[in-house]
Design brief:
By secondary structure, this protein is α/β, with parallel strands linked by helices. It has 20 helices and 29 strands. The radius of gyration is 30 Å and the shape is globular.
């Protein structure tokens, strides 16, 4: 490892006070307010001062509950999702300015990309999933309807509606951009206003992002507020309507969880905290294999990315007995070849300092505790890297080895920096037990190309982790990496990791909503959900395929048939399609099948005929059939039986950015005895006008 400096002076200082944005205006503390100094991580020069002294947090909460709730409540899920996409596009155009500011936090260009581009990427991903996986309405239906009466007059349905309060998001210092945007995005789509409280050491970067967000004019009034400085008595003003999403230390999380408004008042509380994440090297991943190389590369990346200041960083290397020295040598060699420590603004630097000198001191103290607990340094040193600015927060990567893999220290002490420990396991059961000793983690990597090893390890450790990355020669290059949560999948973990979830696609939106069971008649369920329920009122007359999306209403219905099915029809379909399964072609074999009375019609023949029975053939508003869903064949149809179809507009989803929308039609086939033959949903694209 080498160290470079950009030679900048540390004599400069700043009287800038990082403002808060509350009640839809900027706020700064009055003269004489006690303010905390924030320093450049590399040089120790003052960047800004931060204080929230005098800020009326009760008014901030009230503004979110009133103005924010009202402005977001006028929008649908899709409309909110589109605003997020526009916001992502806008921030993408100003990110170079954010990169420059991010360097002051100690972040390299790559670190800043993970934070800034990663945060913007969350906006795009959740915007896309919100439009594809949620209705263009304000109610989200959870699961199928539950019939609660014999005659269908009384049913139940689970729905999600937004919580009526505010999402208070208390973020850590290591990801001042991603940490805010990954929490803001799902709350916004849900329709819940956000109060952001960033960590003070890097909150000036969060403030810069908020300033750009406001300059864009994209977000509605009251939907975003920013507290720069201490959160002080914020939770005192919250109740069961509100949510707190915390990222930080387990100690702080325990303090917040113990607040009376959380324990007794019903404030929803989620936390993502300390995590002694592991990386398990499979017994088949010997030196020279692609899995071994991928494992070593992952370890070096996770120890040095963000200078190891990631809740997902690898803290414990769990390797087969006798393999420790090989791994240490490989990690050391790659570290020396790939890692250059210094001011991230200097050319060639690949690892910057920690976020603050206070953080540096905490990391070094934790390393000392690990040594006292049985570890010995096998790579790196407690000394400052050669050439490091003494005013900066530099720590060299440190790898410790423990002779006793059961040592409590290695499974209990996290040095939140470029520090990891290596231990050995005797067999897979031992590896599983060691991984579990972390007490619950955000992520573990398993490096193996052996399917049985992968299955054994994953089934053994999955319940102790929020995410497991399978790393082998196939995905080594395409993998997003051990330490990179993706917005599509959950981020969080049990036990020590906080016991909560963030992200996970639409799951993260639902975290900001209340699931409620509603019960009533089909007409009432239809009115509440906006989706037609069997037994609710219908409208006939004009064929619904003649109606534009603007004219169409849920409950619009058409019927077709009957049509008699003959043996010749079945035989012809078998010949035309090549589907000569014996139930359609061999009378003796079909009769021996316990599910059929003899030869029966192909299910797809019936579905095809149904389309012919309900379609309106002339050109009109219906543009295309985009799919079928939930197809079920219920009653076999024999030669001589007849079928009829009932088609009802079930759900109408206008697309905000197109001249058409999607209509989901409820399709039911009956036979001549009024028995249900098949049920399914037909999806069509329909012009708005």
């Amino acid at each position: 490892m080498t160290l470079l400096s950009n030679g900048t002076s540390t004599d400069t200082s700043s009287d800038t006070v990082v403002p808060s944005y509350v009640l839809d205006s900027w706020w700064t503390p009055g003269d004489g307010a006690a303010a905390q100094r924030v320093l450049d991580a590399s040089t120790g020069a003052e960047v800004a001062r931060v204080s929230s002294e005098g800020l009326d947090l009760a008014a901030v909460v009230d503004h979110a509950r009133t103005v924010g709730q009202a402005s977001l409540g006028r929008l649908t899920f899709h409309q909110r999702a589109i605003l997020l996409k526009k916001l992502g596009q806008y921030l993408g155009g100003v990110k170079e300015e954010l990169y420059e500011l991010s360097a002051r936090t100690g972040a390299t260009r790559y670190d800043s990309m993970v934070d800034i581009d990663g945060g913007i990427g969350v906006l795009f991903t959740l915007s896309s999933k919100g439009r594809r996986e949620m209705p263009n309405s304000q109610v989200y239906i959870d699961g199928d309807v539950e019939g609660l009466s014999r005659d269908g007059s009384f049913s139940g349905q689970h729905i999600y509606t937004r919580i009526p309060g505010v999402a208070c998001q208390i973020n850590a210092f290591n990801f001042p951009v991603w940490g805010m945007l990954e929490k803001l995005a799902p709350a916004f789509i849900a329709g819940v206003p956000t109060i952001v409280k960033p960590a003070t050491p890097t909150g000036y970067l969060t403030e810069a992002v908020v300033r750009h967000i406001l300059a864009s004019g994209i977000l509605p009034a009251g939907s975003l507020q920013l507290i720069s400085g201490s959160a002080r008595d914020l939770i005192d003003h919250l109740d069961y309507r509100d949510l707190v999403a915390f990222t930080g230390s387990a100690g702080t999380a325990r303090t917040l969880k113990a607040h009376p408004n959380v324990v007794e008042g019903g404030v929803r509380f989620t936390s993502e905290t300390d995590s002694l994440n592991a990386a398990i090297l499979g017994p088949d991943a010997t030196a020279g294999t692609a899995e071994f190389d991928a494992y070593v590369a992952s370890v070096v990346t996770e120890m040095t990315s963000k200078a190891g200041q990631k809740c997902t960083s690898i803290r414990r290397l769990i390797v087969p007995a006798g393999r420790r020295d090989q791994v240490v040598a490989a990690v050391s060699e790659r570290m020396a070849r790939r890692v250059t420590i210094g001011d991230p603004r200097a050319e060639g630097v690949t690892m910057g300092p920690l976020a603050s000198t206070g953080q540096r001191d905490e990391v070094l103290a934790s390393v000392a505790r690990l040594i006292d607990g049985g570890g010995r340094i096998v790579m790196g040193s407690l000394d400052a890297p050669a050439g490091a600015d003494p005013e900066g927060a530099f720590v060299a990567p440190i790898l410790l080895a423990f002779h006793d893999p059961e040592s409590p220290a290695v499974h209990e002490i996290e040095a939140f920096g470029p520090v990891a420990s290596i231990i050995e396991y005797t067999d897979l059961d031992h590896a599983i037990a060691l991984a579990a000793r972390g007490g619950g983690s955000l992520v573990t990597t398993v490096a193996t190309h052996h399917p049985d090893v992968a299955r054994t390890l994953v089934l053994g450790i999955a319940a102790h982790h929020g995410r497991v990355l399978m790393l082998d020669r196939v995905d080594a290059r395409s993998s997003t990496g051990h330490g990179s949560p993706v917005p599509h999948l959950v981020h969080g973990g049990p036990g020590r990791a906080g016991g909560s979830e963030e992200l996970g696609g639409i799951r993260s939106v639902l975290h900001h909503m209340q699931r409620t069971a509603i019960q009533g008649s089909p007409d009432m369920l239809t009115a509440i959900t906006g989706e037609w329920h069997t037994g609710a009122a219908v409208r006939t007359g004009i064929h619904p395929f003649r109606k534009s999306l603007t004219e169409l209403r849920v409950g619009d219905q058409t019927q077709g048939g009957p049509r008699v099915v003959t043996l010749d029809d079945i035989t012809a379909f078998a010949e035309a399609t090549g589907d000569k399964f014996y139930a359609h072609t061999d009378a003796e074999a079909a009769a021996a099948n316990p599910f059929f009375p003899g030869i029966v019609a192909h299910g797809y023949l019936l579905v095809s005929w149904a389309a012919g029975l309900f379609v309106d053939a002339a050109p009109g508003p219906v543009l295309a059939n985009s799919g079928l869903e939930k197809l079920r064949f219920v009653t076999p149809v024999s030669p001589g039986d007849s079928i009829r179809v009932t088609l009802t507009a079930k759900r109408i989803t206008p697309r905000e950015t197109d001249e058409y929308g999607e209509v989901c039609w409820d399709a039911v086939l009956h036979n001549q005895n009024d028995e249900v033959v098949a049920t399914y949903d037909v999806l069509t694209l329909v012009a708005k006008e």
